[in-house]
Amino acid sequence: MRILITNDDGINAPGLKTLEKIASEVAGPAGEIWVVAPAFEQSGVAHCISYSHPTMITELGPRRWAAEGSPADCVLAGLHDILPEKPDLLLSGVNRGNNAGENVMYSGTIGGAMEGALQGVKSIAMSQFLGPRNYQAEDPFESAARHGAEVVRRLLAAPWDEDRDYGLFYNVNFPPIPAADTKSPLICRQGRRQTAGFGIEGQVSPTGRRFLWVRGSEQSVDTGPGTDVSANLADHISVTPMRADLTAHDRLDALESAF
């Protein structure tokens, strides 16, 4: 099996090392693992592509490349410039922090998997929720490292209905707890934390210039039964099937009557 992996935390991120181990377990001894990851952290860039300027790409070693671009750029580079053949699977992550709830909309980790799906490759995004029970652990990614390969195997065995216009991809979040306490995967919908979400905090530098910092919100807010955040807070792995189709299908009939 040939697996392409990327992330949004950057080529030197510890979560990428965890993902390489997961990919190696899934691919087996005869498999190929190709890494194409951002040269620098790209958290929060979502599905951005570097459409208006070129992306520098650097070979760091056998089957290992860094791109000065977004995760989606890395996927495009891997598929159309670096890999000799189309991969059997694309894995994106393991992100440092959850990509559940509204975080999905901002996530470069999700953006990488989404681009893989748009390119016709089976794709899975993987993220590690952080909290008081694992944030200061020797290995905060322990839950993902222990259970990631089995989740991927189960998803590969499930139907992917690849004949749809917008291909299926999966969003997997591991709970913020040690691996031994992690509970079985739950199939979930994307939740929404009823908080203010991201905001802005301004600061004035010593030189009098004003800078704005994006400020996150409380992540441990439950999002209700059947949702990804709720599953993670209850110590379960969450698995959410996704597509890049943003159509509000529930509003189509109502709009027909309005027009």
Automatic annotation (TrEMBL):
First-tier enzyme category under EC: hydrolase
One annotated Gene Ontology cellular component of this protein: cytoplasm
Record's keyword terms, sorted: Cytoplasm, Hydrolase, Metal-binding, Nucleotide-binding
Stated name of the protein: 5'-nucleotidase SurE
Highest taxon in the source lineage: Bacteria
Xref: Gene3D superfamilies: Survival protein SurE-like phosphatase/nucleotidase (3.40.1210.10)
Function: Nucleotidase that shows phosphatase activity on nucleoside 5'-monophosphates.
InterPro entries associated with the record: SurE, SurE-like_Pase/nucleotidase, SurE-like_sf
PANTHER family: 5'-NUCLEOTIDASE SURE, 5'_3'-NUCLEOTIDASE SURE
GO MF entries: 3'-nucleotidase activity; 5'-nucleotidase activity; exopolyphosphatase activity; metal ion binding; nucleotide binding
Catalytic activity reported: a ribonucleoside 5'-phosphate + H2O = a ribonucleoside + phosphate
The organism of origin for this protein: Celeribacter neptunius
Protein EC: 3.1.3.5
Start and end residues of each Survival protein SurE-like phosphatase/nucleotidase domain: 3-195
Cellular localization per UniProt: Cytoplasm
Family per similarity comment: Belongs to the SurE nucleotidase family.
Record-listed a divalent metal cation binding positions: D8, D9, S43, N95
Cofactor: a divalent metal cation
Cofactor binding note: Binds 1 divalent metal cation per subunit.
